[in-house]
Design brief:
- The chain contains 4 helices and no strands.
- The chain has 70 residues and is mainly alpha-helical.
- It has one domain.
- The longest helix has 15 residues.
- The chain is globular.
Length: 70
């Protein structure tokens, strides 16, 4: 636990409008769970690459134009 608390973790608070306006439509479009769509949306918003071993999520990221970490 000590090592985890030393990590530079940032909490990104999401309001309801973002969920209904962006995340849920993205989930439907990419055929993802809302949970996975939230990762894709956050990566787009922060302009960062996505890291995942889940092939469905990796495919959705590629489809939406996100770079992937290999």
């Amino acid at each position: 636990m000590r090592r985890i608390t030393q990590l530079p973790i940032q909490v990104n608070v999401v309001d309801g409008d973002l969920v209904f306006d962006k995340i849920l439509p993205l989930a439907r479009q990419l055929k993802l769970t809302a949970y996975d769509a939230a990762y894709v949306e956050l990566a787009h918003r922060e302009d960062i690459a996505l890291a995942s071993l889940d092939e469905g999520l990796r495919h959705a990221a590629r489809t939406s134009g996100l770079p992937l970490l290999v």
